[in-house]
């Protein structure tokens, strides 16, 4: 494990919250309902984990976050303000100008290909067409504008300054052009070959960068560099949590499905892709799990994840805005947390 010697340990528990879209947001909410946050001194969040981490670290209570499921907005009496609920039309707002330019560029590429057909006689025309279309895809960097999420976070927080958070907050992203992990925070400002710790970045901007899924949302420019989703450089970033606290709780949703009968193949291409992605991420997590346990035998680390045979959770959309689905995701997080605590209790008794 790459050490981060500049990070100082504080009493309490560090929460490490994974990405995974709105699905992970509500799963983490269920986990936190069971565990509570009284002993939490640090939160390390990526993407969805950064969103809920920013809310919790800033003092927004769990009940308020849960009640927002059934309301268009909820009142935050502590801050004397209203918090809007994220909706699909807020999150998936097309970047019409860029998309139009890309459509025109693709059309022009297709027209030029049609004119070149006589010269392509006896060549693989399908391959030539695919190459032509792919080479033309340089006029749009993302299809949706994530600005609404940034504005929602900014409007909901009492302060966008990391230093004002009640719990130390670390939000991770990936530096697009240097393959570094960025960690936005209030305490540390340094850079090495693998990490870029930055202070002075507003929380809402850090959340937007951490949630910028490539191809879906625009990379976020901060201090002259572009940043994308934080899970790409290092999944979970649990090493930060391990460095800053004696106890660490790691919550993630990257769990491949193990069916008792049948195959994921029968669930369609979307779920085949999801299963394949989760296999890759879960393998990375398993490797880090082994390293952390071996190198920090005295550290109390609690790993929380969905059941491998939870079909309902696996099939739930990554971006769901239906109250009944969100409630189910919270309940899954609660069950996962209770199961993890029970496993720890059994190990301690033995």
Structure description:
It is a single chain. This protein has 12 helices and 15 strands. It has helices at residues 21-35, 48-57, 62-67, 88-91, 96-115, 125-135, 147-156, 203-210, 238-244, 269-295, 311-315, 323-349; strands at 10-17, 40-46, 73-76, 81-84, 93-94, 142-145, 168-175, 180-184, 190-191, 195-198, 215-217, 220-222, 225-229, 245-251, 300-304. Strands 1, 2, 7, 8, 9, 10, 12, 13, 14 and 15 form a 10-stranded mixed sheet that branches. A 3-stranded mixed sheet has the order 5-6-11. The longest helix has 27 residues, at 269-295. The two termini are 29 Å apart.
Name the descriptors:
three-stranded mixed sheet; 43% helix; 350 residues; alpha/beta
Which helices and strands appear, and what pairs or packs with what?
Blueprint (H helix, E strand, L loop, with lengths): L9 E8 L3 H15 L4 E7 L1 H10 L4 H6 L5 E4 L4 E4 L3 H4 L1 E2 L1 H20 L9 H11 L6 E4 L1 H10 L11 E8 L4 E5 L5 E2 L3 E4 L4 H8 L4 E3 L2 E3 L2 E5 L8 H7 E7 L17 H27 L4 E5 L6 H5 L7 H27 L1
Parallel strand pairs: 1-2, 1-14, 2-7, 6-11, 8-10, 14-15
Antiparallel strand pairs: 3-4, 5-6, 7-8, 7-13, 9-10, 12-13
């Amino acid at each position: 494990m790459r050490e981060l010697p500049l990070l100082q340990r504080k009493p309490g528990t560090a929460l490490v919250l994974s990405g995974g879209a709105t699905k992970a947001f509500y799963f983490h909410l269920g986990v936190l309902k069971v565990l509570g946050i009284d002993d939490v001194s640090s939160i390390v969040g990526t993407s969805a984990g950064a969103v809920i981490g920013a809310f919790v670290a800033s003092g927004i209570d769990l009940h308020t976050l849960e009640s927002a499921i059934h309301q268009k907005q909820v009142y935050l009496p502590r801050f004397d303000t209203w918090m809007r609920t994220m909706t699909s039309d807020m999150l998936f707002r097309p970047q019409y100008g860029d998309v139009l330019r890309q459509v025109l560029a693709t059309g022009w590429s297709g027209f030029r290909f049609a004119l070149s057909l006589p010269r392509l006689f006896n060549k693989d025309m399908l391959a030539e067409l695919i190459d032509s279309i792919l080479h033309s895809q340089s006029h749009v960097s993302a299809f949706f504008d994530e600005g609404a999420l940034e504005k929602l976070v900014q409007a909901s927080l009492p302060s966008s300054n990391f230093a004002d958070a009640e719990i130390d907050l670390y939000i991770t992203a990936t530096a697009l052009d240097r393959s570094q992990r960025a960690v936005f925070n209030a305490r540390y400002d340094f850079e090495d070959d693998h990490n870029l710790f930055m202070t002075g970045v507003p929380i809402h901007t850090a959340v937007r960068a951490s949630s910028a899924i490539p191809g879906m949302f625009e990379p976020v420019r901060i201090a002259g560099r572009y940043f994308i989703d934080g899970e790409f450089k290092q999944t979970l970033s649990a090493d930060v949590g391990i460095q800053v606290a004696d106890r660490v709780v790691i919550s993630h949703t990257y769990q491949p499905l193990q069916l008792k009968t049948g195959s994921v193949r029968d669930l369609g291409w979307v779920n085949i892709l999801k299963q394949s992605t989760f296999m890759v991420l879960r393998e990375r997590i398993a490797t880090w799990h082994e390293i952390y346990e071996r190198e920090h035998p005295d550290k109390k680390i609690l790993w929380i994840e969905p059941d491998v045979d939870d079909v309902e959770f696996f099939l739930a959309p990554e971006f769901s805005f239906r109250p009944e689905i969100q409630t189910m995701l919270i309940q899954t997080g609660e069950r996962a947390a209770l199961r993890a605590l029970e496993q720890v209790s059994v190990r301690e008794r033995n």
